[in-house]
Amino acid sequence: MPHKLPLSASIYGIDRWGKGLVTTLQNGDVALCDPANPHVAPFSLPAILQDLQQRGIASPLLLRVKSFLETQIAQLNNAFDKAIAQYNYRAPYRGVFPIKVNQQAQVVDRIVDFGRQYDFGLEAGSKPELVIALAHKLSKDALIVCNGVKDAEFVRLAILSLRLGFNTVIVLESPKEAEIVIEVAQELGIDPLLGVRVKLTNQISGKWQSSSGDRSAFGMNTDQLMRVVDRLRGVGLLHCLKLQHSHLGSQVPDVNDVRRAATEACRYYTEMTHEGVPLTHLDLGGGLGVDYTGEQRATENSVNYTVEEYCSNIVETVAYAMDAANAPHPILVTESGRAVSATSSMLVFDVLESTLFDAPDAPSAQSDDHHFVTDLAAVLSYLKPERVQECWNDARFYRDELRALFRRGHVDLRQMARAERIYLNLMTHIKDLVRTTEPESDLSDELKKIADVYHCNFSLFQSLPDVWAIDQLHPIVPLQMLNTPPDRRAVLSDITCDSDGKIDKFILANEIAPSLPVHSLPEDRPYYLGVFFVGAYQETLGDLHNLFGDTNVVTIDLRADGGFDLLHEQEGDTIAEVLSYVEYDPADCIAAFRKMVDEAISAGKLATSERKTLIGAYRDSMNGYTYFE
Ligand SMILES: *Cc1c(COP(=O)(O)O)cnc(C)c1O
To answer: pTM for the whole thing?
Structure first.
């Protein structure tokens, strides 16, 4: 059902990054498309939020969409299948989802359920993740790949799980780990299923550059690898070594890095095969990136390739290398996490209030005004398009002089307040002029930096940790009113009292901008913003800064009739829960508060009738949401 996008929707580049998932309706609402049913009309996101609100589920809210997740799994597997057919590749693809990318049961369970038809498995990087993996019923041929540092307990569980029919591969990270595995395997008398992690020397570009190459913390160099092969041969376990693993780092921006790495991995693989190692699986790790910005460029938050291209490059490269070395085609494994889960969820929050750096009117001049105040007010009289820059320079000069005079005691507070308002009013006029004359200039860049601050009901540290820690960009858009031009520009500030809790880089259609075009806040209804593609890495890296806890989380399924089913709701943390994470016992807190109330009554400072109200208020807070309600 093709429909024309409202004009202002194009500002945000939704058609670039939202491809097949996010769009805009004529009424200005941002809407979700159902990738599983592309012919069904898009679903208004504000309408979904309103429905959830009526069910008692408030923002901030993490919204997961079932078909968004399933589509990614299908796309990855279908793309490999297609490439395998195209290049006459003679082995299947068996992907695994790395649990660390999103450990939430709702996500992992759905990946396993939907992935069973593709023999999709799981990757575990730690003991707890292995424990999660072993609680899932995988298909007979699906893999569990165990990476990361392992102790004897980890190894024992992995080996014993083979008895239940799991294909649990222990990937050896070092010669020392090989010793642990040999000891446990001999003690149990069970042949393990083994892999080796090789350290590729190719370096990738992008944010995870340092996790590739010589200095990567993981994997074995050629010398260590040969020692492990010899050692396994020596103890009669070489026949267990089936998988070769390598991992480039996440979000690889350039597909040619993928090709180069696959080529190098194949050299190790064919050489080991010639050494007599009975390898059957080639695992190329993660790295398949997400085009967060929609730029289709090899930059940190984008990629210059599609999933199809990634898969066909791998299949083509491996087929070529194996044929050249006369080696059988290995079963292909990737550990794509980000690409499977990132697009499947979005964070939605309401804007609580705004701090504006301009004013709609200016106070009139007074006879006792300092002459700089008069000068400042006079700027408006010569403000016209060709003198905007000059006017702005003058306005800043007079304001800065007045501030200096105020600090030295020559201008009083009331006069300073008038000057501030005159200045802000000038900015309002200047912003209007610059917007209507030339779209891009040094001045317009400067003006973006004096954007409004929109205070939003979320915690950056809890919900978008990578935005804070590694400058991750996510598409962010107002979810309504996109049929009217945004009249303001804002940076976003969260409700923690940390000055780092802000977002000031935004993906727009043609640029990464320091402020987001937004609308003046409506008075009669909430103004929602959505942060898209937050399904990878954000959910458990988040912390409890200022004790803002987990947000409400819902999983929905889009229905063909235009409605949706609420599949699952996870209520966000209450204050009591968050307090218990930091070693408070909520019951003790209530008791301590009650004691103070009773002491105040005894001392005659409080009426007995007030006791109920006070304790009730404390108890209600304790049981409430950590965010604004
Ligand atoms: C983190 C990690 C992955 C996941 O990488 P993505 O880029 O998210 O696909 C895969 N394998 C290993 C070993 C990892 O550490």
So the answer is: 0.92
Alpha carbons 77 and 288: distance in angstroms, whole number: 13
Alpha-carbon gap, residue 537 to 38, rounded angstroms = 28
Residue 45 lies in a domain: no
pLDDT tens, position by position, 502-527 = 999 999 998 899 899 999 999 999 99
Best residue among 145, 196, 216, 250 to mutate for probing ligand 1's pocket (most ligand atoms within 8 Å of CB) is 250
Q: Which residues contact 46 (CB under 8 A, 6 or more apart)?
A: 29, 30, 479, 480, 528
* 389 and 319 part of one domain: no
Q: Considering only CA atoms, which residue is closest to atom 4 of ligand 1? A: 286
Is the residue at 167 inside a domain? yes
Orientation of helix 388-407 relative to helix 442-449, angle to 10°: 40
Ligand 1 neighbours, Cβ below 6 Å, are: 98, 100-101, 123, 125, 147, 247, 250-251, 285-288, 335-339
Q: Round to whole Å and give the CA distance between 198 and 233.
A: 18
Residues 6+ apart with CB under 8 A from 626: 547, 548, 549, 572, 573, 574, 575, 578
Tell me the per-residue pLDDT of 177-209, one tens digit each, with 9 for 90 and over.
Answer: 999 999 999 999 999 999 999 999 877 777 777
Are 433 and 311 found together in one domain?
A: no
> Which of 72, 97, 101, 211 gets mutated to test ligand 1 (max ligand atoms within 8 A of its CB)?
101
The count of structural domains within the chain is 3
CA proximity to 139, closest of 158, 163, 122, 157: 122
- What is the whole-number distance in angstroms between the Cα of residue 56 and the centre of ligand 1? 37
Domain that holds residue 88: 66-345
Domain boundary among 379, 414, 448: 448
Residue 125 placed within a domain: yes
Amino acid at 212: S
Atom of ligand 1 nearest to the CA of 339: 9
Domain endpoint, select from 448, 476, 508:
448
